[in-house]
Amino acid sequence: MGAMIERVGGPAVRIPAGKLLINGQWCDGAEGRMIAVYDPATEEKIGDLVAASAADVDRAVQAAHRTFESTHWQKMRPLDRGRLLEKLALLIERDAEELARLETLDNGKPFGVSRNVDMKFAIDALRYYSGWSSKMAGEYIQLSPFFDDGGTYRAYTERRPVGVVGGITPWNFPLGQAVQKLAPAIAFGCTVVLKPSEDASLTTLRLGELILEAGIPEGAINIVTGYGYEAGQALVDHPLVRKIAFTGSTFTGQKILATSARHMKRVTLELGGKSPTIILADADLDRAIPGAANAIFPNSGQVCTAGSRLLIEASIFDEVTKGVAQIARGLKLGSGFDPLVQLGPLISSRQLNRVSELVSTGIKDGAEPLCGGGQVVGKGYFYQPTVLTGGRSDMQIAREEVFGPVVLAMPVQNAGDIKALANDTEYGLGASIWTRDINKAHLLAAQLDCGTVWINTHNVLDLAMPFGGTKMSGLGREFGTEVIHAYTEPRAVCMRL
Ligand code: NAD
């Protein structure tokens, strides 16, 4: 199903058909409206997606609900749900090269990254959550009732799946994010409707083919493509959806939280960031300078935890900024299918314009580009890796998430200054501290208001480590032992003996 695309200078890639996956069947949208898909590196049209309507979303949610309620699903052994995830992991492993090519075509990221980061993450995540399926343990509790009726009271808790989960994902790690939503949901006995980003849905559709091949029961995982304001909104507003697992912008997260209140839906929100990379004067600069570049430029800066504010102790400011700019100038931009390319395009012309405007305003406000600072002339949505200095914390460029290969460097004077500047943001996703003094690192880590602090590294995510943000960066956590709370409800059963 789908069409082959032949590309000059690139491999042939099969584009999945623009369909919806509902109740184990591929189908068209009820209204026949489609969304054109473009290769962000060439601006060529490469396919079409269904623009699902609220009626399509309703069909998908009803299917997920029927499956959730079915005896077959309710009685399935937890270990067998885990085995389904393991099967899906094997199929992704089998087709990893093909999936990675499709991800590169649709999203623009270098093929090596698609293959070695995105596909590997998806496979690991399925295996990690597969193991969780058999670990839904409750507690046995001895009670101390406030009255004495001569009885002995005990209670136990069991963890129950929340029900139908709506998984809404962004475009920066499309397949990985889809798996990140569906795998814990299935492991804990929920069913799912996935709504991938309209800017990058192709690998999620290809995943749909593997979901059918893996023998996952019909209706357990449904996929609806479409616009956020239409299909996404309909999913969030549907009374049978009991939980929304969302990754995306803070703006959309706020809307989802407000809409979810109507039906008191559970939500996990993984949102934006403005994470600081903090380099102290005693840092090992041979590691810290490449570390700072690596915190911002991979995936063309389209990473929620990107180290987009570079806070450097004043005595080493010039050396560090010059070093990061030198690395930035040496990065090769281009088609993700060129093995020498390190940075692909941004996802869309909209995103390219947004990054350009934010940088132009930053420069008008007084920031100075040490390198980059503009779009790349020609086809494709490319933006130059950019290092800005001369910034202040009150500038728009220091406060808003850019989501592009742009870092703003600011000098800091002392420990109090560092803490104040690092926390002077409405976001709270991540931060990294670079120093040789491990005591200093831990003392500073304890003062940073964010979900993850890295020491002498940045952007290390691990499925065993909880992930999420404070403040406007989100609500709840994914990964690690926290995940069980995100997809299950405790039920207490109390007895008199
Ligand atoms: P976005 O919020 O525009 O879209 C994300 C998803 O939400 C898409 O599928 C979109 O169709 C859908 N959507 C949009 N409006 C909706 C609505 N009203 N109701 C329901 N769904 C709706 O974000 P984006 O531009 O695709 O992604 C970039 C953002 O994602 C950045 O802000 C980035 O920081 C964030 N992000 C966060 C994490 C994290 O884990 N914290 C990871 C990756 C990306």
TrEMBL record:
List, alphabetically, the InterPro entries matched.
Ald_DH/histidinol_DH, Ald_DH_C, Ald_DH_CS_CYS, Ald_DH_CS_GLU, Ald_DH_N, Aldehyde_DH_dom
Keyword Oxidoreductase among record annotations: yes
**Domain annotation Aldehyde dehydrogenase: ranges:** 26-493
Q: Which UniProt keywords apply?
A: Oxidoreductase
The molecular function terms in GO held by this entry are: oxidoreductase activity, acting on the aldehyde or oxo group of donors, NAD or NADP as acceptor
Q: Which residues form the active site?
A: E270
Q: Could you confirm whether the keyword Isomerase appears in this record?
A: no
PANTHER family (alphabetical): ALDEHYDE DEHYDROGENASE-RELATED (PTHR11699)
The record's similarity note reads: Belongs to the aldehyde dehydrogenase family.
Q: What is this protein called?
A: Aldehyde dehydrogenase family protein
